[in-house]
Amino acid sequence: MDPIQTTWVKKTGSPTTLLMPLPDFDFDITEASIPWKVLSSRGWKIEFSTEKGSVSQGDLRRLKGLLPGLLSASKPARAAFTEMVQDAAFQHPLPTSTIDAGQYAAIILPGGDAPRMRQYLESELLRSKVLDFWKQHKLVGAICHGILVLARTLDPLTGHSILFGHRVTALPKRLDRIAYRLDKLIIRHGYIMYPKCVSEEVRACLASPKDLIKGPGITKPFAVSEGDFITARWYLDAEVFAEKIAEALEQRLRADRYTG
Hints:
Helices cover about 40% and strands about 15% of the residues. It is an alpha/beta fold. It has one domain: Rossmann fold (3-Layer(aba) Sandwich). It has a seven-stranded mixed beta sheet with strand order 5-3-1-6-7-9-8, with helices on both faces. Strands 2-4 form a two-stranded parallel sheet. A hairpin with a 2-residue loop joins strand 8 (about 225) and strand 9. Helix 1 crosses helix 11, helix 2 (about 30-40) crosses helix 4 (about 75-85) and helix 2 (about 30-40) runs parallel beside helix 11. The chain is globular, with a radius of gyration of 17 Å.
């Protein structure tokens, strides 16, 4: 066992465990399975949760859609998804109400843009659990629409979003609008569009508009890591998003090792 893992076991009595909440339906396959693959390959345990503890189903149109790796899941993402859904933890998710932030080193919030993601994006219960992670200074990662959960989670002491005062990235407005129009005119599956685009809603909750980092072109993987938060724009960023989570978590476990 890795010395970092050994330290965590000594302190908590269990291997390093991360939590990945999901909706009952429509999570983005790449944004969940690639982080799962990257992080589980390091020997860390990943548990899942859904609202009532039912097994989640991803947005299956991403498995057979057009232009794999661009408009639908790439071959590596499809392979990771197939492996992930066979994992015992995926098949036995926790009800959201039972989540205890103290049992986890991090929480990871995948996105998804199909209609049934609203259950997850608009869940007050999930936000209350995310707030617990934030209060305990746990590592918090969110990608694509998943960042809306963070933007909507308020610090009860200030009334501000927990993102206030931090630099993050988010799904670009132009890409959000294009995806919505493409779906409305051609795909017709349904694409979530709130009164404000994802980036607009996120920008509005930040201390300064400059705290929203656009990053390079959307085909170049990008993620922002600052303090307790790691954020990424969309599914093409999933691997670098996962690597930044892994790097930040390893740094924290090393710090625990030297101070424990």
